[in-house]
Design brief:
The chain is built from 3 helices and no strands. It has helices at about 1-20, 30-35, 40-89.
Amino acid sequence: MSSLHARLRDRLTRLARALTRSRRPVPPLDELVRIETDPAYRALFFAQLDAALDERHAAAQTAAVAEIEAAAERLRALVRSPGDQERAA
């Protein structure tokens, strides 16, 4: 069992070292440089950006339509209420 314990201890030590090792800092403009220099990456980046903007626009439109429908329903309820009260009197 001691060889198993030794292997386990060795793996845990390597894992702990890997998790605590400081990572090499990434220059802040690497993504921009890659977009500017790699046409395939640029095409993929802009396609993903367009898709994300389309999704955001569609979500905003859906939310606006829901708000308008809710406001219209509240207005209908207000319009119905006074007529219902007058008929009851």
